[in-house]
Amino acid sequence: MSKQIFINLPVSDLKRSKAFYEAIDAVNNPAFSDDTAACMVLSDTIFVMLLTHDKWRQFTTKRILDAHVDAQVLLCLSAGSREEVNRLVESASVAGGKPDPTPVQDHGFMYGRSFEDPDGHIWEVMWMDPSALPHG
Question: Which structural domains are found in the chain, ordered by start?
Fold first, then answer.
Protein backbone atom coordinates (compact mmCIF):
# COMPACT_ATOMS: atom_id res chain seq x y z
CA MET A 1 0.00 0.00 0.00
CA SER A 2 1.25 3.48 -0.84
CA LYS A 3 1.90 5.82 2.04
CA GLN A 4 -0.72 8.48 2.50
CA ILE A 5 -0.36 11.94 3.95
CA PHE A 6 -2.99 13.76 5.98
CA ILE A 7 -2.22 17.46 6.22
CA ASN A 8 -4.06 19.05 9.13
CA LEU A 9 -4.70 22.78 8.86
CA PRO A 10 -6.44 25.08 11.33
CA VAL A 11 -9.00 27.27 9.57
CA SER A 12 -11.00 30.23 10.79
CA ASP A 13 -14.03 29.64 8.55
CA LEU A 14 -14.65 25.99 7.66
CA LYS A 15 -17.29 26.67 5.02
CA ARG A 16 -15.09 29.24 3.23
CA SER A 17 -12.05 26.96 3.38
CA LYS A 18 -13.99 23.96 2.09
CA ALA A 19 -15.24 26.01 -0.88
CA PHE A 20 -11.70 27.25 -1.54
CA TYR A 21 -10.22 23.74 -1.66
CA GLU A 22 -13.07 22.52 -3.87
CA ALA A 23 -12.17 25.37 -6.27
CA ILE A 24 -8.63 23.98 -6.59
CA ASP A 25 -9.89 20.48 -7.44
CA ALA A 26 -10.10 18.89 -3.98
CA VAL A 27 -13.12 16.69 -3.31
CA ASN A 28 -14.80 16.57 0.07
CA ASN A 29 -15.06 13.15 1.74
CA PRO A 30 -18.25 13.47 3.80
CA ALA A 31 -17.45 10.31 5.77
CA PHE A 32 -14.68 12.25 7.53
CA SER A 33 -16.35 15.67 7.63
CA ASP A 34 -18.72 17.39 10.01
CA ASP A 35 -19.32 20.90 11.34
CA THR A 36 -15.81 20.96 12.91
CA ALA A 37 -13.71 19.36 10.16
CA ALA A 38 -13.64 18.66 6.44
CA CYS A 39 -11.56 16.00 4.73
CA MET A 40 -10.52 17.34 1.34
CA VAL A 41 -9.09 14.74 -1.02
CA LEU A 42 -6.39 15.99 -3.40
CA SER A 43 -5.40 12.55 -4.69
CA ASP A 44 -5.50 8.89 -3.72
CA THR A 45 -2.69 9.57 -1.26
CA ILE A 46 -3.05 13.25 -0.25
CA PHE A 47 -5.73 14.47 2.15
CA VAL A 48 -6.12 17.92 3.67
CA MET A 49 -7.98 17.97 6.98
CA LEU A 50 -9.48 21.40 7.52
CA LEU A 51 -10.07 21.83 11.25
CA THR A 52 -11.89 24.59 13.08
CA HIS A 53 -9.77 26.20 15.78
CA ASP A 54 -11.77 24.43 18.49
CA LYS A 55 -11.20 21.06 16.77
CA TRP A 56 -7.50 21.84 16.27
CA ARG A 57 -7.10 22.49 20.00
CA GLN A 58 -8.19 18.90 20.70
CA PHE A 59 -4.92 17.72 19.12
CA THR A 60 -2.37 20.15 20.56
CA THR A 61 -2.01 22.77 23.24
CA LYS A 62 0.38 24.80 21.07
CA ARG A 63 -1.03 28.13 19.95
CA ILE A 64 -2.37 28.51 16.45
CA LEU A 65 -0.13 30.83 14.48
CA ASP A 66 -1.53 33.47 12.18
CA ALA A 67 -0.30 32.08 8.87
CA HIS A 68 -0.76 35.51 7.28
CA VAL A 69 2.09 36.68 9.54
CA ASP A 70 4.02 33.55 10.57
CA ALA A 71 5.10 30.54 8.52
CA GLN A 72 6.03 27.12 9.78
CA VAL A 73 5.73 25.00 6.63
CA LEU A 74 5.57 25.42 2.88
CA LEU A 75 3.42 22.73 1.34
CA CYS A 76 4.28 21.63 -2.20
CA LEU A 77 2.21 19.76 -4.77
CA SER A 78 3.44 18.37 -8.05
CA ALA A 79 1.71 19.27 -11.30
CA GLY A 80 1.66 17.54 -14.67
CA SER A 81 2.57 20.62 -16.71
CA ARG A 82 3.42 24.30 -16.58
CA GLU A 83 -0.16 24.98 -17.66
CA GLU A 84 -1.50 23.01 -14.69
CA VAL A 85 0.70 25.05 -12.34
CA ASN A 86 -0.74 28.26 -13.75
CA ARG A 87 -4.32 26.93 -13.70
CA LEU A 88 -4.14 25.91 -10.04
CA VAL A 89 -2.67 29.25 -8.96
CA GLU A 90 -5.26 31.16 -10.97
CA SER A 91 -8.08 28.97 -9.56
CA ALA A 92 -6.79 29.67 -6.05
CA SER A 93 -6.72 33.40 -6.75
CA VAL A 94 -10.29 33.46 -8.10
CA ALA A 95 -11.46 31.46 -5.06
CA GLY A 96 -10.09 34.01 -2.58
CA GLY A 97 -6.48 32.93 -2.25
CA LYS A 98 -3.40 35.09 -2.75
CA PRO A 99 -1.33 34.25 -5.84
CA ASP A 100 2.46 34.07 -5.75
CA PRO A 101 3.31 34.94 -2.13
CA THR A 102 6.73 33.41 -2.85
CA PRO A 103 8.89 34.05 -5.94
CA VAL A 104 7.96 32.32 -9.20
CA GLN A 105 10.58 29.70 -10.05
CA ASP A 106 11.35 29.17 -13.72
CA HIS A 107 14.42 27.11 -14.47
CA GLY A 108 13.25 25.83 -17.84
CA PHE A 109 13.07 22.16 -16.82
CA MET A 110 11.35 23.10 -13.53
CA TYR A 111 8.58 25.63 -13.03
CA GLY A 112 6.78 26.61 -9.87
CA ARG A 113 4.37 29.13 -8.46
CA SER A 114 2.55 29.39 -5.16
CA PHE A 115 -0.62 30.56 -3.49
CA GLU A 116 -1.95 31.23 -0.01
CA ASP A 117 -5.26 29.78 1.06
CA PRO A 118 -7.73 32.08 2.86
CA ASP A 119 -6.01 31.35 6.20
CA GLY A 120 -2.54 32.17 4.86
CA HIS A 121 -1.18 28.62 4.45
CA ILE A 122 1.30 28.65 1.57
CA TRP A 123 1.06 26.00 -1.14
CA GLU A 124 3.69 25.70 -3.86
CA VAL A 125 2.80 24.01 -7.15
CA MET A 126 5.77 22.60 -9.08
CA TRP A 127 6.23 20.99 -12.47
CA MET A 128 9.44 19.30 -13.53
CA ASP A 129 10.27 17.90 -16.97
CA PRO A 130 10.92 14.18 -16.34
CA SER A 131 13.26 13.98 -19.34
CA ALA A 132 15.57 16.50 -17.64
CA LEU A 133 16.09 14.26 -14.60
CA PRO A 134 19.37 12.32 -14.37
CA HIS A 135 18.96 8.66 -15.27
CA GLY A 136 20.14 5.87 -13.02
Answer: 5-132 (3.10.180.10)
